[in-house]
Queue: 2 jobs
Job 1
Amino acid sequence: MIVRRLELEGFRNYAAAAAEFAPGVNVICGENAQGKTNLLEAVGYLSGARSHRARGDRELIAFDRDQALLRAELEGRGRTFAVEAQLFRGRRRKLSVNGVPLRTAAELSELIHTVLFCPGDLSIIQAGSAERRRFLDQAICQLRPRYAAALAEYHRLQEHKTRILRDWEDKPSLLDLLPEFNDRMARCGAVVVHYRAHFIRRLSERAAAIHAEFAGGREQLSLSYQTVKTVGDPLLPTRDIYPRLLAHQESHRRAELDSRVCLSGPHKDDLLVAIDGRPARQFASQGQTRTAVLSLKLSEREIHREDTGEWPVLLLDDVLSELDQRRRDFVLRRIGGGQVFITCCEEEGLEELEGRTFHIRAGALTAGP
Ligand SMILES: Nc1ncnc2c1ncn2[C@@H]1O[C@H](COP(=O)(O)OP(=O)(O)OP(=O)(O)O)[C@@H](O)[C@H]1O
Ligand SMILES: [Mg+2]
């Protein structure tokens, strides 16, 4: 699925703009603070009706307006789809496809998928494990509804169990509920671990190859999955993971009651990223960090293509800075296939890309030569 056309009204700094995009690479060029990221955000919003950086729809509405409109024409699977999102201040948004109102944003995310790289993603390497879980979760959720369901249920149970652990001293009868919650968490948790393990295995093969190519064969990226200790081999079937999660909970029962927090379960998982055997979080340079995150994202894109037969739309925001010429050339060679939006401040080096160039100035969009 590609974005053929996009119209924006009152969206961020776009009063009114429209553009027809190429099915290949679209270079979005402009100085700082002109609207490049805003445009990528708008394209990203078409998938799942969510922004990667706004906390709510209200932030997306232009400062001086009460509503915003995104209208897009998507093309794929031999059909075209007219997607519309109307955002209001203080009122629920309206989403529709081909004039038919959508009840949930999830219906929109089935239509078009995106893989985004933005500077904030460097935190996948640099920040704590929560960022890496977020990366894994969004990637697997786009591909596997069963995972998304298990994860949502797991979080719901975890919240509930946390309340029990918080309040049990005042209300000891709550403890009677604990075995039931533990059991259900272990069941959902086993599904979560299983999917994460298989995804990381595939990710790791691809990311290692991409990273090596990026770095001219001089660096080796390795990924490994760190989950609940007793699991041993997380690639086991879920029925074998389940009793191992239960065993771990059992051994942490006292500690959970004392600390009043959930200590046991895949909500503490991590994806360990190493370059040449050393943890990237502590030792990677800026360029290496960027290269590693890009390798993860490009791998996610390839897995997506393998599983669905379609390239997700690739959104690359400010990807080229901090990379040396060879790594930049590699990115530009590697993004062939599927639709790509790539922002930059200067066009230098991007002229050879096949596709279309757009210049952005203060929220005005013009198709360039
Ligand atoms: N809701 C809004 N209404 C109006 N303007 C907004 C809104 N939200 C953000 N802006 C403005 O839009 C402008 C462009 O932001 P954007 O993040 O797209 O810049 P950019 O072109 O990506 O710049 P950079 O190269 O620095 O990343 C900024 O000046 C920002 O303040
Ligand atoms: Mg930007």
Job 2
Amino acid sequence: MKLYHFPLSGHAHRAALFLSLAGVEHELIPVDLAAGAHKQPEFLALNAFGEVPVLDDDGIIIADSLAILVYVARKIGPSHWLPTDPATEAEVQRFLSVAAGKIAYGACAARLVTLFDAPFRAEEVIGRAHATLTVIDQLLATRSWIAGTAQPTIADVALYSYIERAPEGNVDLSTYPHVLGWLRKIEQLPGFVPFARSRAGLEA
Ligand SMILES: N[C@@H](CCC(=O)N[C@@H](CS)C(=O)NCC(=O)O)C(=O)O
């Protein structure tokens, strides 16, 4: 499979991370966001929203990081990554929604402010990041993995990248011991690949 990718994108990282964790052979195709390559007709033909990541599985095009996680999890066949029991699958979906909502407009947005000068109000997005992390930390006090399963799911993968790099957006993780423990457990999974580090925010 080919993954259209940008190293500083947490959305692209979560897709690349899952391909690696799932043991799926893949090639990373760099997309030069700084040069606007994602807004050129060739890339827009793959994803009309003009965003990375995009997966190309032998001509089957999947745009959107969370859609890629679902596609790859289904493609590899039954596994712990995307359980089919209705209640468990719904719990996984619940946290994919957290990744697409509270995390995107919280920890992710806070990092966009420090890395790319994005026009968000830092106080607001950092506040949203902390409100989300507080709940996730409470949940992880009683759950090994975020969807309450015995083994990791794509919900853990979906949440990992922007939470782990949240300090780059001035979101301090030190008061979330269960989140920190969960991040380290993900990093120990076979096939784990790290998200690029930037000198920004609390990591400057
Ligand atoms: N919902 C999309 C969001 C992807 C996204 O926001 N990608 C960013 C990089 S982190 C992007 O390509 N931004 C370029 C732009 O919007 O101009 C996903 O989950 O893949």
